[in-house]
């Protein structure tokens, strides 16, 4: 565990771009970035957001964990329309996986939001529409292994239960009311598709 923690790379946000108030953590929320695998660039985009948007950790495609601020602190990352949105942000730890997320298929090719082709080997193909799309970029095995280690550490540190929740892939009343556990952005908002229910991600969450 100590070796894992020592390998985390710090890319600190400026002090005025997150909140150093400390609240009891009840939830961990998984996101994906809708971008390429450069975690530092992701964190850099949060450096001037008026709303103080960001998460504590970003995991790149190689599985390297990048830290923007301490998990004890918080920033806005949920953006719900619920009256308890600020409380939910204060009481949760956000983790981003670098991934383009939803893809568009055209003539057998798969395009990201920048209209660049994603290799077919990197594509998850669902036999149904998940939040409006059938195709998503895969989370890598390296990302999922690092995510598992990070979740184990955070759940132990903050006494957050690690039981797998089937409703994390849809709008969840449990998530929105602040119940303890691990959720995804999908759990809080019907207009989001992060994270998608990739089989390997589900298996990883079930074996934390």
What does this protein structure show overall?
The protein is built from six helices and eleven strands. The model has no long low-confidence stretch (mean pLDDT 97). Strand 9 and strand 10 form a beta hairpin. It has a six-stranded mixed sheet with strand order 1-4-3-5-2-11. It has a five-stranded antiparallel sheet with strand order 8-7-6-10-9, with no helix packed on it. The longest helix is centred in the last third of the chain and has 18 residues, at 141-158. The chain has two domains: 2-99 and 139-206, Lysozyme-like; 101-137, no CATH class. The protein is of the alpha/beta class. The two termini are 14 Å apart.
List keywords for this structure.
five-stranded antiparallel sheet, 208 residues, Lysozyme-like, 11 strands, globular, alpha/beta, six-stranded mixed sheet, 2 domains
First-residue to last-residue Cα separation? 14 Å
Strand content: 15-25%
Task: Write down the Rg.
Answer: 16 Å
Judged by helices, strands and strand pairing, the structural class is: alpha/beta
Arrangement of strands in the largest sheet? 1-4-3-5-2-11
Output the CATH class name of the largest domain. Alpha Beta
CATH topology of the largest domain: Lysozyme-like
**Overall geometric form:** globular
Note the run of SSEs as H and E: HEEHEEHEEEEEEHHEH
Count of the separate structural domains: 2
Poorly predicted ranges? none
What helical percentage do the residues reach?
A: 10-25%
Largest sheet: 6 strands, mixed
Number of helices: 6
Q: Architecture of the largest domain, CATH level 2? A: 3-Layer(aba) Sandwich
Let me know the CATH homologous superfamily of the largest domain. Answer: Peptidoglycan recognition protein-like
Q: How many beta-strand runs?
A: 11
Overall pLDDT score: 97
